[in-house]
Predict the structure.
Amino acid sequence: MHSYEPKKFTIPALEGISQKQIDVHIGLYEGYVKHINVLREQIADLTEKDAEKYQFAIESIRRRLGFEFNGMRMHEFYFPQFEGGATDAPMESALASTLSEKYGSWDAFIAHFTSVGMSRGSGWTVLAWDRKGNTPHVWWTTDHELGTLADVEVLLAMDMWEHAYMIDYLPAEKKQHIDAFLNNLNWNVVTSRFDSKN
Ligand SMILES: [Fe+2]
């Protein structure tokens, strides 16, 4: 059976995000990858054993797949955004023009992205390109899979689960985590996602 392998990330020293925080977080990411494989194996095993008898169990496992799969995929958007080290905001890029046009200015986009990041609960703040609507969107995904948008290109994914920052920050310091996340970004990763969108 096909199985998923965790990806490796080369993350430089960050400011305001400790190595321990990153190491623990990558360990959690690897757990998602492992669990997709485990769930798929369990579906196969139960189906082979007695698909009718285990129908409810199989369906329950299948319902869980979106959580583990998106948990893997969202972190695969997340960690590479730090690779290569922090850059200045890409003010001269096509991405910056598009975002400034929609949100009023680059700073207004950052303020909006930050305020969505401050949403209560565990989840993700995502900037994506909707190719069919020809427009960017910022939204909140609860957990990894609830409320996410179909058929859009993820450009920037900010992990707002407590596990992403609670080694370095208290829950009440969520805003500092957002600032640290934004300050450590390699925006070239984000602009290349935008430039290679379909
Ligand atoms: Fe995470």
